[in-house]
Write a structure and sequence with these properties.
The complex is a heterodimer of chains A (about 325) and B (about 250). Chain A is built from 14 helices and no strands. Chain A is mainly α and about 325 residues long. The radius of gyration of chain B is 18 Å and the shape is globular. Classes of the chains: A mainly alpha (about 325), B alpha/beta (about 250).
Chain lengths: ~325, ~250
């Protein structure tokens, strides 16, 4: 099954690189990649499409893994990677950077988004400890509080800043989710962060399995639940932070992909995380291809596609789950 | 293994001055009215709730000094609620019992697989091993969770109201199974049991009322008219001959 998903990702990536306003023939792909042959094709492949496909794959994979891990910890198939406040913090960071930086150089907005996401999750973790012990419930409550608070500040910035209205497209990409080509250094940094998050998630997977019957049963099975909760928060903050930094608030991927993958590979988190990474990456590469081509030459924010496809898809999953319960 | 234990939530004391000793090879039933503190005492014994006074030992060691992993190798707990929304197979659920013994990369070794097999066999779950836990009956799911606790291969097994969602036939079968597991495997088993007639089937009974253990001993010494009236109110008749008392509405 994992091999099948990997093949699906490879096909999606190939489609993402070859298709678009200028179609690249499959035969010319190798040359274009190596910078030989038609210089226009080489520029399109190497500078525009490949970075964009890589960014989309990283974002989709990171969201899939973070969603699967958080759903397991919270025992809630409706949890998404943003419940811990990473989205709101990331959006606040990005919007603040757009509002304050006169001309945002390539890496400033992603960096601000990533930092915002990490700070938000750290705050959630700290807030959740106020009651004495960090439990899944206090994390969830603190996440809600921080998300609405950061959301209010984002709105305040939107209303108060003249500069933001001039940069509507960048703003939409942050708030609705949009993949844009990134420079190699930004992509490499994001890839390292995502890789670290995925490795941490895979290491945590057997411990998250033990949450199947709740936090207290996880404890009686031998899990140090406070340490595990903290470790899951760190791993998912890295993943969601990287995703928000590269593509803003992409909806539904982190929610729907793990949900669908459970039906294919089962509930154990090692295979589930691997499957969620591959499927999430493939899904977002395809969604971004759709965002580029559906209304060409206009370009949709990718969040419009994931929302429009993910919403009904999720509904189908829900209805099927309801039937199987009945 | 518990002596003079006091515990509660916030400033509220729920159980106080409780002494509980579990014996290998025997089933102890913990009975008492709603709100008496049975589940709280069980959480204390499981190491989930720290007592504010008293001592707790397991295998001669202070429970508070052990890590969660070390506790889980000595004490297994069967939860009262065992619903999960995720499609684990029965075998995967039982394998969760090996969590405290997972190796460096979280893999199950051959010894772990054998322990899982033994637990599946003990509860006759082999034919269901590949089925999804959310697609078996309530009784089967409970057996799977019990097998998960058995797979921990601990000396102590604690159960919070294991009969509560079962029909009378399964209630009897569960208590019989717990006695058999205790005697065959030398386990020290404690089960919270609401029903006095089920508690009477255990080797020993402890009755908890208002946070204190009011009596403990063999069923016929504990479940007698005086105590039943005192703890559960008038309106009950205790009959039965010799070993097993029977409690019925008067």
């Amino acid at each position: 099954m994992l091999a099948l998903l990997a093949a699906a990702l490879a096909v999606s990536a190939a489609a993402g690189v070859l298709l678009g306003a200028v179609a690249i023939p499959l035969a010319g792909f190798g040359d274009a990649l190596l910078g030989r042959g038609d210089p226009a094709a080489a520029t399109i492949v190497r500078d525009l499409r490949l970075p964009r496909v890589v960014a989309a794959a990283l974002v989709g994979g990171a969201l899939g893994v973070a969603g699967a891990l958080l759903q397991g910890l919270l025992r809630n198939p409706l949890a998404d990677p943003y419940v811990t406040g990473a989205s709101a913090g990331g959006a606040l960071g990005a919007v603040a950077a757009l509002a304050l930086a006169a001309s945002a150089p390539g890496a400033v907005v992603p960096l601000a988004a990533f930092s915002g996401a990490l700070v938000a999750v750290a705050l959630v973790w700290r807030l959740a400890r106020l009651g004495g012990r960090t439990t899944v419930l206090t994390v969830l409550l603190a996440g809600v509080v921080l998300t609405s608070f950061a959301g209010a500040i984002v709105t305040l910035l939107l209303v108060a800043s003249d500069r933001l209205s001039l940069r509507l497209r960048a703003l939409v990409d942050v708030l609705v989710g949009g993949v844009s080509p990134r420079d190699t250094a930004t992509l490499a940094a994001a890839a390292i962060v995502v890789a670290a998050g995925v490795v941490a998630a895979l290491a945590l997977a057997p411990r998250v399995d033990a949450y199947a019957f709740g936090e207290e049963t996880a404890a009686t099975l031998g899990i140090d639940t406070e340490r595990t909760t903290t470790a899951v928060l760190v791993a998912t903050a890295l993943l969601a932070g990287a995703a928000v930094a590269l593509a803003g608030l992409v909806s539904f991927v982190g929610l729907v992909v793990p949900h669908a993958m459970r039906g294919l590979v089962g509930a154990r988190h090692r295979p589930l995380l691997a499957a969620s990474f591959l499927a999430g990456a493939a899904a977002l590469v395809l969604a971004d291809l759709g965002a580029r081509t559906l209304l060409a030459p206009a370009e949709l924010p990718v969040g419009v596609i994931t929302g429009a496809v993910g919403g009904p898809f999720f509904l189908v999953l829900l209805v099927r789950a309801r039937w199987s319960l009945a | 293994m518990a002596s003079g234990v006091r515990a509660g939530y916030g400033g509220r004391v729920v159980v106080d001055g409780c002494d509980v000793t579990l014996e290998s090879g025997a089933l102890l039933a913990l009975a008492g009215p709603n709100g008496a503190g049975k589940s709280t005492l069980l959480r204390v014994l499981a190491g989930l709730l720290r007592p504010t006074a008293g001592t707790l030992t397991v295998e001669g060691r202070d429970l508070g000094s052990l890590s969660r992993r070390e506790v889980a190798r000595r004490i297994a707990v069967v939860p009262q609620l065992f619903d999960t929304l995720f499609p684990f197979s029965v075998r995967e659920v039982v394998a969760l019992g090996r969590t405290a013994r997972l190796g460096a990369f979280g893999r199950l070794g051959a010894a772990d697989a054998q322990a899982v097999d033994r637990a599946l066999d003990a509860l006759e779950l082999r034919p269901l091993a590949g089925r999804r836990i959310d697609r078996v009956s309530g009784g089967e799911r409970q057996r799977a969770v019990l097998a998960m606790a058995l797979a921990q291969e601990t000396g102590v097994l604690l159960l919070d109201e294991p009969t509560v969602h079962l029909d009378p036939a399964h209630q009897l079968a569960t208590v019989a199974l717990l006695r058999r597991l205790a005697s065959e495997r030398g386990l020290a088993v404690l089960a919270v049991l609401h029903d006095l007639n089920l508690a009477a089937l255990a080797d020993r009974v402890a009755v908890l009322a208002e946070g204190r253990i009011v009596r403990a001993g063999p069923p016929r010494e504990v479940i007698e008219p005086c105590l039943v009236r005192e703890v559960f109110g008038a309106g009950w008749r205790v009959t039965g001959d010799g070993e097993r008392p029977v409690v019925a509405p008067a």
